[in-house]
Amino acid sequence: MRCCHNTAPAATRVRQRIAVNQESRPSVAPAEPRMRTRVTELLAIRFPIIQGGMQWVGRAELASAVSNAGGLGVLTALTQPTPEALADEIARCRSMTAQPFGVNLTMLPAAAPPPYEAYLDAAIAGGVKILETAGNVPEAFIAKAKAAGMKIVHKCTAVRHALAAQRRGVDAVSIDGFECAGHPGEDDVGGLVLIPAAARRLQVPLIASGGIADGRGLAAALVLGAEGINMGTRFCATQEAPIHARVKQLLVDKSERDTNLIFRTLNNSARCVKNAISDEVVAMERRPGGVAFAEIHHLVAGARGRATLESGEVENGLVWGGQVIGLIDDVPSCADLIRRIVLECRERLGAGSAYFQ
Ligand SMILES: Cc1cc2nc3c(=O)[nH]c(=O)nc-3n(C[C@H](O)[C@H](O)[C@H](O)COP(=O)(O)O)c2cc1C
After folding, report:
1. 84 HSE (CA, 13 A, CB side)
2. What's the CA gap between 314 and 337, in Å, rounded?
3. Which of 55, 206, 248 to mutate to test the pocket of ligand 1 (most atoms within 8 A of CB)?
4. What angle do CA 224, 227, 231 make, to 5 degrees?
5. Above 80 in pLDDT, residue 327?
6. Span 60-102, pLDDT tens digits
7. Nearest of 89, 92, 86 to residue 121 by alpha carbon
8. Is the pLDDT at 318 greater than 60, yes or no?
9. Distance between CA atoms of 270 and 180, rounded to whole angstroms?
10. pLDDT for 28-40, tens place per residue?
């Protein structure tokens, strides 16, 4: 169990760490608001809000906007066709923000794996100091990244995997609940249980991921024991996300009931927005005798999903998205989104004390 010397109730402790300094001093601009948790300290960011790696979406436009707004923007390494292209994207992102940003390296089993180590080398050579890892990351990669002075945030979907990552020396863990977009694992444990279950066992800072879109979510995550949040789907529906406006509108229009879990029968569950393609995959998986990956490959191919994001033909390919689409009503800038999440979080944590009066 994590040790805590502060005996104040959880919500009060969290409030104590949100130092929103809006004092006005004559002729001095008010200090920028900021929050303080171990995650903001570790990553040198103003707010404990991370934009998770997102294939085809995690490019410089989005990552720099999130970092400029005080969160942590993350470039997705494998969105770039080669390690050299990643190096160029890092340089482009650096020209768009002076704030820290990270690189996501997702290492999933593949018939022809990408040159993962060369992507890592490109991130190191580009001076990136924060690495978000996901999937099966060899110990040698962690050692190499740490030797280069990187802070490593490992994202996973189970407490046992979080503990294994901690043993391997990562600096923080993001844990994705069953609600999340992408791969939620096969345990089907929602964030309300998974986050405190992980917080009870981990010593490194925990970041809650999956199903978070607003200040209520940030407040809840902090009270549950996390010290920051990671969002994917919510950041897709922002002005700066480099995807077609019709895809953003799809995320606005859909409800929390409008996701599909595909690849369940292949033991590689993945959550995406319900549309003609994901419905067809689910139907094929439910056929007597199931389906082989080769039979659905033409529907789920990465290139097809990328084309959908670019063309806005939202019924033509997979659109990754989590149940949190039920909480998305608009397409703000990243700055507006982060600002209102922080203010709403503060308000919600304050409101919590009303129960005790
Ligand atoms: C469009 C999209 C693409 C994603 N691609 C990746 C990826 O390549 N690697 C990864 O680790 N996570 C990926 N994710 C997962 C996110 O980083 C994050 O963990 C997840 O979206 C959190 O759940 P939420 O969408 O409910 O916020 C993706 C999510 C989305 C929405």
Report:
1. 0
2. 24
3. 55
4. 90
5. yes
6. 999 999 999 999 999 999 999 999 999 999 999 999 999 999 9
7. 86
8. yes
9. 9
10. 555 668 999 999 9
Residues of 111-124 as b/e, b for ≥16 C-beta within 10 angstroms?
Answer: eeebebeebbbbbb
Count of other CB atoms within 10 angstroms of residue 25? 8
- Tell me the whole-structure pTM to 2 decimals: 0.92
Expressed in angstroms and rounded, the spacing between residue 38 Cα and the centre of ligand 1 is 23
Minimal-distance CA residue to ligand 1 atom 18: 232
- For residue 146, what are the CA distances in angstroms to 131, 166, 170, 210? 10, 13, 9, 27
Q: Whose CA is nearest to atom 22 of ligand 1?
A: 210
Query: What is the tens place of the pLDDT at every residue in 231-281?
Result: 999 999 999 999 999 999 999 999 999 999 999 999 999 999 999 999 999
Q: Which of 49, 173, 235, 320 to mutate to test the pocket of ligand 1 (most atoms within 8 A of CB)?
A: 320
Provide CB contacts within 8 A for 337, sequence distance 6+. Answer: 69, 234, 235, 238
CA atoms of 262 and 279, how far apart (whole Å): 9
**Polymer length of the chain:** 357
Please count the other Cβ atoms lying within 10 Å of the Cβ belonging to residue 267: 7
| Higher-pLDDT residue of 44, 21 | 44
